From TrEMBL:
The modification N6-(pyridoxal phosphate)lysine is found at K215. Its EC number is 2.6.1.9. Residues 46-350 form the Aminotransferase class I/classII large domain. GO terms for biological process: L-histidine biosynthetic process. This is Histidinol-phosphate aminotransferase. Homodimer. SUPFAM superfamilies: PLP-dependent transferases (SSF53383). One of its GO terms (molecular function) is pyridoxal phosphate binding. The keyword Lipid metabolism does not apply. It comes from Buchnera aphidicola (Artemisaphis artemisicola).
Amino acid sequence: MINNVLKLVRYNIKKLRPYQSARRIGGGNGLIWLNANESPLSIPFKLKKKSFNRYPECQPIDLISSYAKYVNLSFEQVLATRGADEGIELLIKAFCEPEKDAIIYCPPTYDMYQVNANMANVKIKEIPTIKNTWELDLLSIQSNLKTVKLVYICNPNNPTGNIILKKDLLFLLKITLGRALVVIDEAYIEFSPEDSMVSFLKDYSHLVILRTLSKAFGLAGIRCGFTLANKVIIEILNKVITPYPISIPVMDIAVQSLQKNYITLMKDRVSELNLNRIWLINQLNELDCIDKVFESHANYILVKFFMFEKIFQMLWNKGIILRNQNNKMNLKECIRISIGTRSECFSLIQELKNFSKNNIF
């Protein structure tokens, strides 16, 4: 009977390797969670809405208005989604013909770009970033634009933490004009706000920006994101979005988080985490077990370790859960570390110091 069911599955789904989220991988008996780029601090909210017997608006007016004000855009340039991930999916669904069109993505980067393309049976063109500098290979992108509808760029990039230079993004926008949409995933942009491309939406009709409340806003648990683009693109995406993507409780909490006082608190937390990141990088650079610490502009850092497997497992056994990146392109022996509280970062450093004392590198 099982074989009969499997015969019904689409061929591309049979072959699909699903995204390995932090929760899907699991975390053993985790005490310190530094593997999912979440906020280490919880923000308390009380629901203002008390009735849930009616369906919510597809695009809640209060939520769209609040986020439009936050990013200084018009109401018609904002689409609310179930995290930024739904934005990735909707763009492929709306703009790519299965088995015909392609996307470009630039590994090592966020895997959901290629996972969503694989689910939709859309072709993928991998244009790796330049090793160690992580800059875009713009000439290779330019020579591979045939049949491409979407170019996905994560900025700051996950998991490397680097910023893509604005001059490179502007060059990318020029070479894709009239050919493809450029989708810039700014999930971590609050940690480096001066590098946002939102102000260029007025100049480039094919620019799309993805945002989320999961990272700096500390609301990973409510799954609320936004797609920012020109009016025509937003109208197209509204054709393919589910009828009720934003639940009433999610809308309620998200709107509260976008009030002026909560935005101030968010910026204070970002400043604190940025200081923790600097402290952690300085501490890591003094350890013998460290091969290289890469520069980061987000709430995580990428670190290349000597004896990385033993270190990863040792920390896991002690309840300090990190994210192994060894299997990603050009990230051999690398681990990604989310920035936690100062106490959590201190605990990590102490364990690594003990490991360094007891091993020869």
